[in-house]
Amino acid sequence: MDWVILAATGRLARVEISGSPWSARANQTSRVDHDVIRSCAQACDGYVGAVTSTGSAFRICVDDLPALAPGGPWSLWDGPVADSLDPGNGHVVGLYNLDIEAAPLALGTRAGIVKRVVPEYKGWESWEVMTVKEDDEIVGVAQAADADELVFATVDAQLLRLSAREVRAQGRTAGGMAGIKLLEGSRVIFFTAIAKDDRDQASVVTLAVGSDSAATVKVTPFADYPSKGRSTTGVRTQRFLKGQDRLGLAWAGLPPVRACDSAGGPRNLPTADDRRDGTGTKVYGPFFALG
Hints:
Shape: globular
Order of helices and strands: EEHEEEEEEEEEEEEEEEEEEEEE
Number of helices: 1
């Protein structure tokens, strides 16, 4: 199977493997630059869809991308920058499988709006997947069947885990519905979907930052977070130390999670912490992305 991978640094590549990139990467023990994954999707008839922050989508030809060695490690340093392929506005936030038999595309926005899109693709070069307000933007996408779960994380350290079944699939031009209830001044910094079969293995990673304190990172099993209903505030995912005032990064998915700096260079993460709302472990140096 051909898969397309989007690195956290925005670069693209393809790899031919029998399973998913997450499973394949679990067997890779060494690190290289530009190896943190933001999104990946299986190709359909030689293409994948790319979704932008403004709610538009366009197709990417697999054959136009550099190939990675299946055994890894995977560095996407020489792949094209996804944003340079975008025919519209915004920046690329994720990829998805264009097969109309695949699970609906789920999208989450900075203002806490969520949407699942009825599968539809007719060979377009570009199209709309969601109507996004001018003061909002999409922060994450993933494909989610009814049995899967959707995850929001906010800058004030709230995490909402809810059943995808609560979000009915809509047409491409619809604007979505309330996903997470935000407290005043808050915003969503991460959104994804966790497959039903992955819930017991998935992890949640958060990075707390502030102007008067070292950053702290916490890695916690996803199963430790209770599932709540749509349009609720979620639960606290990390307790701030004195001098910290926000989450700089958040991520949820299958381990092993990785981190990088803005140049794609690897950063180390601590071991798992079973305290759902603990303070985490101090880290030093710049962190740009998790994935």
